[in-house]
Write a structure and sequence with these properties.
The chain is an alpha+beta fold. It is built from two helices and six strands, in the order βββαβαββ.
Length: 154
C-alpha cells in the first residue's frame, strides 16, 4: 500500500494571526505549525506548540520581564484555544520551559493567578523544565494539550 493510500487521522493546523504570528511568517522559515487539531472518534485534541511572549508581528515582547512574558504566553495560548472554540477549561496538560529555573517561583505565581482567574478546577497536569528558549530574550515558553468534543466549533 502506498503511503498516500493509508488511512489517516484527520488533522488541521491551528492559528490566530490577530494575536500570534504563525511560524511561516517569521523572517527565517521554521518547520512547525502553531498548533494542530486532531480528530479522534468523538473528540478533538488540540496540540498547541511551544508558545512564548511573541506578538502578532512575530516580535518578542517584554524582554527581561519573566512575569509579563509568562502572562503573554498564557494569553497567546488562550487566543489559540478560542480560535478552535476551546478555552483553558479544556486543557489537560501543559509543558512549561524556563530559561532559568531559579525563576520558577515567579513563574508559578503568575501561572497560579492566571489559573485562579480562569477558575480552573482541576488545574492541568504539567511538567516544568529548564531549557534554552529559541530566542535569548525569551525566558518562558509553554505548550499545551486540550481535548474538546469533536462537534464543538468556533
Amino acid at each position: 500500500m502506498a503511503v498516500a493510500d493509508k488511512a489517516r487521522v484527520e488533522k488541521t493546523a491551528i492559528e490566530n494571526k490577530s494575536v500570534l504570528n504563525e511560524a511561516y511568517d517569521y523572517e527565517s522559515k521554521v518547520a512547525f505549525s502553531r498548533g494542530m487539531r486532531v480528530e479522534v472518534g468523538d473528540c478533538s485534541m488540540l496540540f498547541i506548540s511551544g508558545t512564548a511572549s511573541v506578538d502578532e508581528h512575530g516580535a518578542s515582547i517584554h524582554p527581561g520581564d519573566l512575569k509579563a512574558q509568562t502572562l503573554r504566553a498564557l494569553t497567546n495560548i488562550r487566543a489559540l484555544l478560542e480560535s478552535e472554540g476551546a478555552d483553558w477549561h479544556d486543557i489537560v496538560r501543559t509543558t512549561c520551559y524556563l530559561a532559568d529555573f531559579r525563576h520558577y517561583d515567579e513563574f508559578n505565581e503568575v501561572r497560579n493567578k492566571f489559573f485562579d482567574d480562569e477558575c480552573l478546577d482541576p488545574i492541568p497536569a504539567s511538567t516544568c523544565i529548564e531549557a534554552r528558549i529559541c530566542r535569548p530574550e525569551l525566558l518562558v515558553e509553554i505548550e499545551a494539550i486540550a481535548m474538546i468534543p469533536r462537534d464543538r466549533t468556533v
